[in-house]
Model the fold of this input.
Amino acid sequence: MSTSGLGGYGGRRLAEKLGPLNVWSFALQRLSAIAESKAARRLEELGYPAIWIPESLGSKDVMAHSAILLSATEAAIIAPGIANIHARDPMAMANGARALGEAFPGRFVLGIGVSHAPSVKIRGGEYAKPLAQITAYIDAMDSAQYAAPPPAEPVPVVLAALGPRMLELAAERADGAHSYFVPVEHTPFARRHLGPEPALIPEVTAVLTADRSKGLEVARAFARHYLALPNYANNLRRMGWPDEDIANDGSDRLLEAVVAIGDIDYIVRRIREHLDAGADTVVLQLREEKSTDPALAAYAEIRAAFAP
Done:
């Protein structure tokens, strides 16, 4: 992307800005603005450079949500992971990002993606050929008119990407790629298709527990939805996982490959495995039994253990 104020930030520059470890949180969108603002400030105090938030069906609009969190914090970067291209037209997406980038210089990263057919259908949209659809969308973002002052520096753009062609598009048209629900073996695969310049930002889900059975229970409840979506199931097949591991909410072996279940040292080790395999930034999602728990104590322990 080369349009003024959006994209063209540079993958290496983005990787340096994000650092090796960020937060990815579902819980924040389920809290009140006051409660999530307090949680975001605590994550910032712990030393996490960026907080990534989803755009789920029935959740807060991700642009408005980003504005809440940007206003609540002083220096934290806020990044949608991922803003759904079916939730707003290209001009709205581009200009929303420009407005946040201008208001909060250097603190907003725009993550965009094609979402999934069931979610798009519920929204009343049409899930067409994903690569063609998002390419056309990016083209329209590039040409979107904007009458307000542009950001002082470009807003970085990353694409949700799992397969080869989407990763290659991320390398060509964005500053990086964000992968989600992936085992460690996906990271070197993604790096090969991205090349050395774009930022590679995989999400890593973890359950902090000494009870493996309990951890698997939490992991299975989390993974059930994703294993039913073709995008994620097909990506696991691409990585060599057979259908018998993917079926019936996932085998224990598969769940432990995509969700780090264990103590602090084990979770930190999984983070470092992704970094060693070619990731620039790992975005850590801690899962608790309660979906509204921002897991602040656990994030504090992991940040302390991860620090050099």
Remarks:
- Residues 212-227 form the longest helix (16 residues).
